[in-house]
Amino acid sequence: MSYSRILGTGSHLPSRTVTNADLEAIVDTTAAWIQERTGIEKRHLVSDDETCCDLAEAAARKALQAADVQPSDLDLILVATTTPDQFFPSTACLLQQRLGVRGCAAFDLQAVCTGFVYAIGVADKFIRTGSAKRALVVGAETLSRVLNWKDRGTCVLFGDGAGAVVLGAADQPGIISSHLHADGAYKDLLQIPGGIGNGHPEACFMEMKGNEVFRVAVTTLGRIVDETLEANGLAKSDIDWLIPHQANIRIIQATARKLDLPMERVVVTVADHGNTSAASIPLALDQAVRDGRIRRGELLLMEAFGGGFTWGSVLMRY
Ligand code: COA
Fold it and tell me: Which pLDDT belongs to residue 1?
């Protein structure tokens, strides 16, 4: 049995930035409230003619280049997204066509903000079992398209973007473990109620009970940290970097405290990106790899929590 490891990372943000002060003009909020309660200062939003697949493609090309892998070498393309360009074909199939390759498996995975962690867990299993040797794993979102811009409790929190990694088969891990969970009993706390299957395509806007989501997120992420360390016989001090889902700086700080990890060892992008859902972890990872903070051989813990609820972690040696 082989392992999987990251061969290269990439990311892409739309060029349009929207500051907290810009939001004061469109919804009843203040820049200071957003900054204090969430840590967010600005976010990148797509323009009218930009799509989720555009972001995914730009991030994927950078990851392929960093990995020195050709699209024709890929056995699997996996896109974690809640905002696909179309109901079908999947964004992964659209991306495959853009990359100019045919035949390899390609599908989308929907686990909202935990999507990238789920996708790494799935791609790792493809590689470990020998079904794939090289996998492109992308987290890409255009959540701005499903925000209610009159709801100050949600629209100030989210941003658009994409991040990607190329995973390759290796003799040593790489990905050490992934722990994936869900509990649909929480479906009403964070949702887009509309859909084709339930006959309400007009209701495709996010609704959230922010306060309750916050409380469950903090305790659940604490538990997933414990689960990951215990499963691998590790101490908190073994972790070199925490790469958390970027929803709210206060949630991130709570998880870092749980790990006794100083904030200098936590990759934080929430101030500049907001919550980019499935894109947030690969965006943060790519930033810290490219600026030289994360080095080969270091132990990384990724964790995420999102609608469903879904939550999970990936432990890896970079
Ligand atoms: N600007 C100004 N005031 C706002 C506001 C905004 N954008 N959004 C909410 N408020 C107000 C509320 O209306 C409320 O006012 P009231 O006391 O007069 O009713 C007050 O701020 C406090 O609201 P509350 O929801 O208790 O604030 P909070 O400290 O919990 O912060 C969130 C709100 C949304 C930032 C926070 O709950 C959160 O981050 N939740 C988790 C969200 C998340 O991570 N979701 C994605 C999971 S992947």
Answer: 64
Residue type, 228: T
CA–centroid distance, 95 to ligand 1, in Å, is: 36
pTM score: 0.97
C-alpha to C-alpha distance for 60 and 162, rounded to whole angstroms:
9
What is the chain's length? 318
CA-nearest residue for atom 22, ligand 1, is 211
Q: What is the pLDDT of residues 63-81, one digit of tens each?
A: 999 999 999 999 999 999 9
Q: Say how many Å lie between the CA of residue 256 and the centre of ligand 1.
A: 22
Three-class HEC string of 97-142: HHCCCCCCEEEEECCHHHHHHHHHHHHHHHHHCCCCCEEEEEEEEC
Alpha-carbon torsion 69, 70, 72, 74, what sign?
A: positive
CB proximity list for 236: less than 8 A, separation 6 or greater? 229, 259, 260, 261
- For residues 140-170, b (16+ Cβ closer than 10 Å) or e, as one string? bbbbbebbeeeebebbbbbbbbbbbbbbbbe
- Tell how many helices (H) and how many strands (E) occur in the chain: 10, 13
Residue 299's DSSP bridge partners are 317
d(CA 314, CA 295): 17
29 three-class SS: coil
Task: Summarize the confidence of residues 226-246 as an average pLDDT.
Answer: 97
Mutate to test the pocket of ligand 1, among 206, 208, 214, 305 (most ligand atoms within 8 A of CB): 214
- Listing DSSP states for 235-280 in one string gives -GGG--EEEE--S-HHHHHHHHHHTT--GGGB---HHHH-B-GGGH
State residue 190's pLDDT score: 98
Crossing angle of the two packed helices 249-258 and 210-231, in degrees rounded to 10: 30
d(CA 114, CA 315): 14
Question: Which of 188, 164, 198 minimizes the C-alpha distance to 289?
Answer: 164
Please tell me the distance from the alpha carbon of residue 6 to that of residue 126, in angstroms, as a whole number.
Answer: 14
